[in-house]
Amino acid sequence: MGLLRDPALADDGALKIEFAAGRMPVLADLTRRWAESRPLRGQRIAACLHVTTETANLCRALIAGGAEVALCASNPLSTKDDVAASIQRDIGAEVFAVHGCDRETFYRQVAGTLDSLPTLVIDDGADLTATIHNERPELLGEITGGTEVTSTGVLRLRNMAADGALRYPLLPANDAVTKHLFDNRYGTGQNTIDGILRATNVLIAGSTVVVAGYGWCGKGVAMRARGMGAEVVVTEVDAVRALEAKLDGLRVLPMREAAGLADIVVTTTGNRDVITTEHMKLMRDGAIIGNSGHFDLEIAVAELTALATGRRQIRPHCVEYTLPGGNRIILLAEGRLLGQAAAEAHPAEVMDMTFATQALIVRHLAEHAGELAPGVHPVPHEIETEVAQAKLAAYGIEIDELTERQREYLGGWQTGT
């Protein structure tokens, strides 16, 4: 059953899951209510997610709601082996996740999860969805819908829909404000800096940090780096985002100019070849590069490996490459998702909102998927409102409500100057 590094690690994982649960009040309340109402009874859920303590608590909610859950890792370096063992032993999901596995084993884990014959899919990067459509089309008859939690995955799904290839309805959790505004900005911002510090222990203050991409993730990284005393330079291909970075007080340059200034470069674009070996040749000796996009394509790692005249691991998640000219480049976490691989992913307080949103989307799909055509559909606004209100209540925060007169004004058009 499942595929784990060592089931005996479960005791350690259980303590970490319990610690995270205490910081996820919205999801905990949902779990309590679902244990009574069982809105997911009869559903088989295949999930491809980072196997962390926060994901464990999502699995708990889904199983409390009546679902059977099979879980595989969405990134081999983000898996926590002790957490994976506890999810299977204590929570009851079937888990296929081994930290640091090779590509063949990664896709064996994906295949094992799909062998559960899912009716609903939860994806992070669209690997399950793509595998189902490309290699396991026989599963499509049972699957009524799915959801995707990351920007890169949503891009893949929209491209599938545009090509007419997507065969069931998808609700992108990443499009929900309660996900991208908080998870991408505050979660990615914090865990990326955390990953840099754990891997290198460098001083951020006084350094020049180049952030490639000024979407929500890039904004979060830039905000945290600037708050720690770095000079932040942004690179962009989008004119509006570049202008936003400028008006936020940041320097905006093309990568060919920014590369030579950088002490640290972080990619957050969701695209490929953002840092090439041509950029690396322009970097100063000892420049540090890392990626906070979902896939390990943003940094040209294979080309760097081929170009380098020397390679040595100098710290965990920290490999030094020597270029032909003698300059050294420090690559973090193999070019994979830095905050997940070298640190401990998003804080539980942020994932509380993301996974509560995800769980409510799954419930919505279980109840309404038959009404939705194949394609990418917006997340219902009431789901975002429910999560936001619950999170405010957990913080003990009250907000104002519109009066009836205000509602009438906002709904009308005749009152003017």
UniProtKB/TrEMBL annotation:
List the cofactors: NAD(+)
**Gene3D superfamilies in alphabetical order:** Adenosylhomocysteinase-like, NAD(P)-binding Rossmann-like Domain
> Which pathway is this protein engaged in?
Amino-acid biosynthesis; L-homocysteine biosynthesis; L-homocysteine from S-adenosyl-L-homocysteine: step 1/1
Coiled coil regions in record:
none
EC number annotated for this UniProt entry: 3.13.2.1
Q: Which Pfam families match?
A: AdoHcyase, AdoHcyase_NAD
Could you tell me what this protein is called? Adenosylhomocysteinase
Species in which this protein is naturally found: Saccharopolyspora taberi
Q: Which lineage ranks, top first, belong to the organism behind this chain? A: Bacteria, Bacillati, Actinomycetota, Actinomycetes, Pseudonocardiales
